[in-house]
Amino acid sequence: DCEEDSPPGEEEEEQLLLHVTEGPTGTGGVHHPFIASLTPPHIYQFHQRNGFACVLLSDVLELVQFLFVVTFSTFLLCCVDYDVLFATRPLNHSHVPERAKVTLPDAVLPAPQCARRLRGSGWLLFLLVLAGAVWLCRLVTALRRLVGYWEIRSFYIRALGIPA
């Protein structure tokens, strides 16, 4: 019984049908039914990531997280004197007793000494340049993805009538 209700030729291949409302979609009044770069997986992913604002916030926070991890790791490698922190070398402060508790501020090197240690390590500079290049690639990828998600957002609002 179910096969009789379906239109002829439907058994051969299922196709995605999209209904687009009539009317202008942009400021120029040009009507385009569906943007060719938008595929159903992209539209589904946009839906699953909870819309444009969440996608934008997620991408920005991922970029900030990457910068934080690289910066904090560099700080820990170059700007902390671990011999002082783990008490294998005594502090040079005259006002601190010999068996006093060592804190992190006691083990942090001054900025000029930290910069000198950073400049003195060629492999670390190479890794920082490499991390900068990776971050720039991630930025470009995020911007390209956001342009596509903006198109999907417009498609949801204008063509499907689903508000943001």
Automatic annotation (TrEMBL):
Q: Give the location in the cell.
A: Preautophagosomal structure membrane
Transmembrane domains' residue ranges = 66-85, 123-143
Membrane recorded as keyword: yes
Please give one Pfam family short name: ATG9
Kindly state which keywords UniProt assigns to this record, in alphabetical order.
Answer: Autophagy, Lipid transport, Membrane, Transmembrane, Transmembrane helix, Transport
Q: Please give the InterPro entries that the UniProt record associates with this protein.
A: Autophagy-rel_prot_9
Please give the biological process terms from Gene Ontology that the record holds.
autophagy of mitochondrion; lipid transport; piecemeal microautophagy of the nucleus; protein localization to phagophore assembly site; reticulophagy
Quote the PANTHER family the UniProt record gives. APG9 AUTOPHAGY 9 (PTHR13038), AUTOPHAGY-RELATED PROTEIN 9B (PTHR13038:SF14)
The entry assigns this protein to a family as follows: Belongs to the ATG9 family.
List the protein's name.
Autophagy-related protein 9
